[in-house]
Amino acid sequence: MAGRLDGEVVLITGAAQGIGRATAVVAAREGAKVGLLDVDEAGGADALAEVTAGGAQACFVTADITSESQVATAVGAVADELGDATVLVNNAGRNSYADPVAMTVAEWDDVFAVDLKGAWMMARAVLPAMKSRGRGSIVNIASIHARLTTQGMFPYAACKSGLVGLTRSLALDLGPHGVRVNAVSPGWTRTRLVQEVLDRHEPSYTQQVLDAHPMGRIGTPPEIAEVICFLASDAASFVTGAEWSADGGLGARYAG
């Protein structure tokens, strides 16, 4: 049976672990050729081995998405190996735990370079081919923090809110060219970044997090990957400019 992403070339940033790696595995299962990008060379090689274990065609490129030259080189390398990207998943991101007064301008720039600027530079690099073809899909991985945040994670919410705004703007500009742009906003998901947050608190905090979820648990990377690959596929052909929550109902809960 044909997969949802048969014939697609899916390019994923932050693909060495977590949601990015899970998305690469699901995309390959759904018939795509998969390009994996990450700064973590060892993790990327391991992820590539998992993706190709089932016979999928894939490649890994070490790249820092905050570097304009590395973005161009990486996108070109994937195109040479697999063909021009027809799907881009902007998944790479980083946490931030800054004080809004003590934070330096350089620290601010470092956070936004990964969580927002890098997504734009990746989109800019793949869009000429998508526009020329008259079709394409971009999925930006935002966060529940784009709408509901917590103290002690400045300026993460600003970055993710900006990414949702970028999604809407690109969707409007690119819709006439047949390119769809959407965002997925995961809630608590068992990734390294989430584990960082949990580790910053007492062990009882983890149970508080679980209790806050209507489903009584947090998500897994493969669950988020399924949503991403659906939005990337033609099964979501009339969805663009949307922000899809994948938070186990956490965002629906009244906090009082």
TrEMBL record:
GO terms for molecular function: oxidoreductase activity. CDD domains: SDR_c. Gene3D superfamilies: NAD(P)-binding Rossmann-like Domain (3.40.50.720). The keyword Oxidoreductase applies. Pfam families: adh_short_C2. The keyword Oxidoreductase applies. Its EC number is 1.1.1.-. It comes from the Bacteria. InterPro entries: NAD(P)-bd_dom_sf, Sc_DH/Rdtase_CS, SDR_fam. Keywords: Oxidoreductase. Belongs to the short-chain dehydrogenases/reductases (SDR) family. This is SDR family NAD(P)-dependent oxidoreductase. It comes from Tenggerimyces flavus. The lineage of its organism: Bacteria, Bacillati, Actinomycetota, Actinomycetes, Propionibacteriales.
